[in-house]
Amino acid sequence: MNSHWNLYWESNHSGSFGSEDPEWYHQKIIPQWMEVFLQLDQHSNLLDLATGNGAVTRLALSASQETSKDFHIDAIDQATTQAIPGVHLLTPSPLEKIELEENHYDMITSQFGLEYANIASTLPRLAPALKSTGSIDLIAHHFQSVISQNSKQEVEQYQACFKDNAVFSRLKKLIIKMGEIRSPEDLEKSKAKANNARQSFNKTIARLTKKYPQGIVIAELMKNIEPLFKQALMQPINTKLAFIDNIETQMKMAKKRLTDQLSAALSEKDINQWEKYARQSNLKIDEKKLICSGAGQILAWHLRFTKN
Question: Can you give the pTM of this predicted structure?
Fold first, then answer.
């Protein structure tokens, strides 16, 4: 499992959109799942793939409770994720190597997860686990979605921050030049000592903000380094340098996650290939539709596989 995803889920994010889900997620994605779950029969067996910290299983539990249908819900991820009351977490496993009980599940679900796997290896492992009337329902990344468009912009901003390591090397140089600060007098002295380093760093930030005036990555960077010059100002230099290293690591991890997502996003050609693999696994795609925002922007694919 890639460490950048492990660290992400360890940070207790409920879904893959960070600390707060976008408005369109509540308007379009959640209703889509609730519609799917409310069609299930009482005592249905569900399995959520690439579950993360359980965004989809929470919705399934909610639907189960609303209708008193008492679903049995399993979940699995390659990463070690957080247990949710009422959901049984299976042993972590790559989807390509998943081992499941045959003829057991009424529905297998995935939200922005199955497309990261090798589908040719994964579908033959999922198909036998479905009951004859079961389905695989998934919401998957679309290569032209607003999510993909935003991700491309953010990856570009990350790349600009990491280019020649300018932002972080110049920030570290500024902190070192400022020296140890233990009093207001030290702070005054540091202003003169670090003037050139400060100007160099400020020019770097100015170039970034000029190129990306609305850049979410640049704004997040500025927010993250602000404590260096406020709450942490009188911390030892090594502590502040470690703080900078942590910011850089987190940004590199975020860039890797977005790069993974862009690589996984599906085109119409990819879906056609999936249909071929589905037929080889005695499955067919019963539903293939776009989920769009109220403004008509593509958000995701909704796909449903059933047994032939």
Answer: 0.87
